[in-house]
């Protein structure tokens, strides 16, 4: 795809802006072909996004991004306002929806991830966000986090039925 640098690079941020446009465009087109629906949102793998990523999304007409996670050092590392990226905001025509974070019992910043937080931690984080007047709380979840360990069956504690996550449209 990139003859001058044929090796695979682990993170999207290791590609320049033009290369990111090509990669995201290819992914967008594959998804559109598979679903018949336009692609309107994006999240970089490992949260590896930077200013070039956001510019690429604007170029491609993808208006929503959830790649910012301030607990991931590679995420938004070149964005001057990185430390304050904890709530949804508009930036240069994009709607940014960062992953929500909280301080755990040891004072460490943690991402609000379904499979990595206990019930008490998640409840406390949600209640703190409400007290602070946050307009949104964005959870991270992977498809496998709702399955029984070592199986492709839903975890019985979820009622055994189909899980449908709500879709947030700004």
UniProtKB/TrEMBL annotation:
GO terms for biological process: carbohydrate metabolic process. This is Uncharacterized protein. It comes from the Bacteria. SUPFAM superfamilies: Glycoside hydrolase/deacetylase. InterPro entries: Glyco_hydro/deAcase_b/a-brl (IPR011330).
